[in-house]
Amino acid sequence: PSAAVQGRRGIVWRECGDGLECGTLSVPVDWARPRGLRTQIDLARMPARDPYRGLGALVVNTGAPSTIQDVRARPDTVSELTRWFDVVLVEPRGIGDRGSRAMVRCSVPPPDPLLLQLAPGRASWRSYARQNAAYGKSCRIAAGPAYGGLTARQTAHDLDALRAALGERRLRYFGNGYGAVYGLAYLELFPRRVERMYLEGVPDLGEPSLERRATARARAAERRLGHFRDWCRSRLGCPLDDDAPAVIDDLYERVPLPAGAGRTLDARGVAAAVYAGLEPGRWPELARALSQAEEGDAAALAAMTDVPPQAGPATVTRAAACRDFGPAVPTHTELVALEERLRAPAPRVGWLSARHEAAHCLGLPGPAQPPGIRLPGLVRLPGAASSAGPMRLPGALQSSESGGLPGVVPSAAPEHRPDAVQSSGPGDLPGVVPSPGTSRLPGSGQASGAPRRAEGASVLVGVGRLDIGAVRVPGAAVLRHGDGPGAYLLQGEAKLRAACLRTRVHDYLVNGVRPRASCSGELVADP
Predict the structure, then answer these.
(1) What pTM does this model have?
(2) Looking at the record, which segments are called Disordered (predicted)?
């Protein structure tokens, strides 16, 4: 609609470009004091293509610094979901659309963790801590009284207010990365108000020990290096003729490496460059840079450690995350000792994870309350790329290559809306039929052949082979896939609409169909 539309419970939607309708929601700074100071959160809506056949609202947070700006830049990440839903993009507190009054604009940018990885000395450690503290102080000043409400649990209350404002009895939610953390917080606070959730790349931030976090990330980095080696071996034309780890070992033996314009690269610089290049999207770049360094020119490898310039104003994202889950930061002496301990399980590059983990919250205040989402019964299992492994509740449903699904979901699942749109057969919802390797969730009573309502697992968790870590949540079905964090969104951006992962996520969100088998990786391009 061209005119502003008054939404339920006061949301006013107005056209705001890029096919979006924007609005705001007023919420208390502290939900324990609902009559106190208020703040606002930014919203945007992609209306369902056919409002007469839609299933209602699906709330989305992509985990980007701004979900709305992310979708403006990459609409194909979520636009396919409008075949069935009004896609409602929600920002956490302090984050907003371009030009929004809801955005907390910190006047001092946060320092890049690369700076701490490249400079091991005590003076650099102190300088980094001062820069990070200045960033945090600027965020507190910019946010004013609203700063105290910048937590995941307050955001979970905001999600519930949004659910009510949209007229939904239960929440449908898609959360990626840190957006999945808000989903976990909602599950903790409002477990019976969940219709369905898809959570992807769920970080395991409940671990208070920095050493255990760093050890998990260190071992994951070494495994990613192994995946990079296997990827390169399987690609015709990969410039690394030899085993990639062997090339790295050879470069360590030859440091300092000439990197052009009088620059050299030491062993720490080599490790930092490889560490930065282990993101799957950078594998082709890393392969070329290692090959050129082996031939005597490490300029491209050194460039992988260049700190990118700050794009736009600094956001409150890091400060808020440290308020939620920041671990106790060690002293410089303790960190150096931890690095040495990490060289045993992660000798090539993973040992840098200690500085990566410490860098985010060094110099910032710790959590406002004990960190972690307190979902009862969480246990760690092997999986993803985390040494501690992702976390799972006993009885959770897990997809596997064999398709075996032992156990059942907990019986205390939320009830579902009696007025929800149901399909009368596999073709009733356009484009969605149960795909091979899926099964209906148990406990649905309806005619044979019709997609069943999700009355068992109300959560589906995507766990990628290249994820650093992940959590399993109570009653969740688990969909394993061969890509890394943000795979669903990246596949949409690449227009891989028929990808296994996306098809099965849609089957789940629309029809309540749980996947019974894993999906292979589909994202990494040839070098």
Answers:
(1) 0.83
(2) 390-454
